[in-house]
Amino acid sequence: MNDQWEGTEIMSAKPGVGVPECLESERQFLATVLQPGWDDVLYDFSLSCQPEFFHKPQHRYVWEAALSLSATGTEISFASLITALGSNFHKVGGFQALTDILSAEAVERPEVLLREMKQKRDARESLKALGRALDAIRSTGTVGGELDSLRSLADSFSPLETPIKSYSDLFEVLEAGAGALPVDKASNLPVFGVESLDRTVGAMAGTLGVVAAKTSAGKSSLAYQICVQSAMKNRRVLLVSLEADREEVSAALAANINHVNRTTLLRVGASGIQVDGIVKSHVMGYHAGSGATWDNIEKAVRIEHRKNPFHVVLLDYFTLLEPPTYKGNRNMASLYGEISKGGKRLSQQLGCSVIFLSQFNRGVEDGQEPFLENLRETGQLEQDADWVVLLWAKPEDEPEGFRYVNAKVAKNRKGKRGDKFKMKLYPAESRFTGCETIFNG
Do 252 and 262 contact (CB within 8 A), yes or no? Predict the structure, then answer.
């Protein structure tokens, strides 16, 4: 029996039944996922769509080429697919055949097509296994070892292990005196460089955090300090700046390290400046400019993360992003809410800590203590965030060379909330120093 399609004889017993396949769904899936600019979508499906899900060899060759491009971070295009196909390009059928595949109608939910493709693959594998069992019965009169194969096949289609589990293993860990979280997930990824914040805020892997303040209250300075301090603890950090350019950020980071005036470093420089090698190698920048879209930023982060994973991603700042466009009438809060959910999704899928810097709405006066409801543009950000630190300063709290800035841990899913601290901000150096606890929540 031809191994390419064992089980044909079984199907012939039922007129009108052919090889289980969904060739049009395969074409639509490829045309949807391999659209230019959809590299992040391709990456997501590369984890769940296996080449054998495609029944048609030409479709399988195209998908294998796309997987090789995704693995190297190469952008998807007609030309890059041809290069990745190599000798298989002619097996696909050349330019016209590849054009026909990629010109199929795209769909909004390719995961539905993937589910259908997998079901057809399962049906093909079942028939092949049944065909082998039938051959064994005819030649020996028994199913023999094929019975075990059939059982294994059934288990692979309907796994015995389900997402429903008991807590007994974790109870045993707790009874042994250890924490429920593994060590690598229990530690914060971002480092604030301010002892009380580092001790209080629960900024582990997979969390979305928010630092919110009015203009000039130090949120960007705190972001720069997080970059430096996190890198010093061997965390790889990405700063997405929508306001400051590369030169401004480099001067601010160096000023934080060397305790010198960042404007001086930016304009004329200073002697004796040193930047640790680990900061040079572990802090990356993406300067998108005001009006950049979250989709483009998320795509760039995912591509770079595949090459060398990030531990911390900071966005400075949230409301400078261009809100996404959708059909129908949706208010601004709803549109920014989609960005908030995107940040949460990114942190969970990449296993990193994402931090959005944000402003308050007009309801907060200078020197007035802010609250969660003062987050600007959307309440979705408050809902999605795992932790929120609010900063505010009183105009009279500005001694020579520094100013006092208050910090409140307004939300903290994995730690204590409500604590308030007073910090010293040296604005010229983009640097914060030690906290004094002024209120315990």
Answer: yes
- Gap between the Cα atoms of 67 and 61, Å rounded: 10
Cα dist from 361 to 209, 253, 321, whole Å: 18, 28, 16
Q: Classify residue 189 as exposed, middle or buried by CB count within 10 Å of its CB (0-12, 13-18, 19+).
A: buried
User: What token pair was written down for 75?
Assistant: 């952008």
Q: Cα–chain-centroid distance for residue 388?
A: 19
Q: How confident is the model at residue 394 (pLDDT cuts 50, 70, 90)?
A: confident
Q: What local confidence, expressed as pLDDT, does residue 151 receive?
A: 63
Burial class (CB in 10 A: 0-12, 13-18, 19+), 284: middle
H/E run at residue 208: strand 208-213
β-bridge partners, 423: 405
Residues 251-267, buried b or exposed e (16+ Cβ, 10 A)?
bbbbbbbbebbbeebbe
Residue 9 confidence (pLDDT) above 60: no
- Going by C-beta distance under 8 Å and a sequence separation of 6 or more, which residues neighbour residue 346? 298, 301, 302, 313, 352, 354
Please report the domains of the chain, with CATH numbers, ordered by start residue: 3-157 (1.10.860.10), 187-439 (3.40.50.300)
The DSSP bridge partners found for residue 284 are 238
Q: Going by DSSP bridges, is the β-strand pair 353-359/312-316 parallel, antiparallel, or unpaired?
A: parallel
Whether 17 shows a pLDDT value over 70: the answer reads no
User: Whole-angstrom Cα distance, residue 371 to residue 390?
Assistant: 8
* Residue 8 reports pLDDT greater than 50: no
Residues 221-237 have pLDDT tens digits of 999 999 999 999 999 99
CA triple 125-130-132, angle to 5 deg? 100
